[in-house]
Design a protein that fits this description.
alpha/beta; SAM-dependent_MTases_sf; binds S-adenosylmethionine; S-adenosyl-L-methionine; methyltransferase activity
């Protein structure tokens, strides 16, 4: 696992991953997540500077955003979002109690394999019936966060249904860049889930933790 100091180094300058430019991803996330989060209480793990709290979770009844970086949390708090509060916390140590939906968008791949497994097992065993939303760059970049391995892990732990949606496309090679531009046209987003696997950059997984028999 990376430490608070590691992430604070990233946050030495605001918006280190240029997340505020990912407007297309935010639009797709909003479209996919609206029915799942509207009026619900959301626990947003790895919330960073609160970009998604603002851009995607505005329709949630309440959001608790947690992040290991105190710098990121100070910036998130300064947004003064009416439905959200923020805490500095390592989400591996956090309690997930008391929320309808748990989100882990673009943060689980910073954990080791073992930590990823323990995190998923905690949700599966301790939070039956809860919705878990997870996303990451799953192909090529950070190969260890692969679709095949995730699906195997989800199935083994009994998560169901397993739904996944593509969020964005690589900019390289040029063929992928053409597709990346096409999907930004009106109704282009409807093509997202049909694009070749090799072009997919980020993917969203929508899972329900198993209910005990
Ligand atoms: C790439 S940023 C993603 C921010 C936001 N979720 C988004 O998608 O726009 C990853 C965030 O996860 C946080 N993070 C990583 N590991 C964490 C942990 N164990 N506990 C809490 N936050 C963590 C980092 O500090 C960072 O803010």
């Amino acid at each position: 696992m990376r430490t608070a100091a590691d992430f604070n180094l990233y946050y030495a300058t605001p918006d280190p991953w240029h997340i505020s430019h990912a407007r297309f991803r935010d639009k797709v996330l909003r479209r996919r997540l609206k029915p799942l989060i509207r009026g619900k209480s959301v626990l947003e793990l790895g919330c960073g500077e609160g970009h998604l709290t603002h851009a995607v979770f505005g329709k949630a009844r309440s959001v608790v955003g947690i992040d290991i970086s105190d710098i990121a949390i100070a910036r998130a708090k300064s947004l003064n979002l009416p439905n959200a509060r923020f805490e500095i916390c390592d989400f591996l140590q956090a309690s997930f109690e008391g929320h309808d939906v748990i989100t882990a968008l673009e943060c689980v791949y910073y954990l080791s394999f073992q930590e990823q497994g323990a995190f998923l097992e905690k949700v599966a065993k301790e939070h039956p019936g809860k919705i878990l939303l997870l996303s990451g760059p799953i192909v090529d970049y950070r190969r260890h966060f692969s679709h095949k391995r995730l699906m195997l892990e989800f199935t083994t732990l009994g998560f169901a249904p397993l739904k996944f949606y593509n969020l964005s496309v690589y900019w390289y090679p040029p063929s992928s860049r053409i597709v990346a531009n096409l999907i930004k046209l009106p109704l282009g987003h409807t093509l997202l889930d049909w694009i070749p696997e090799s072009m997919v950059y980020q993917r969203l997984y929508v899972l329900r933790a198993p209910k005990p028999l």
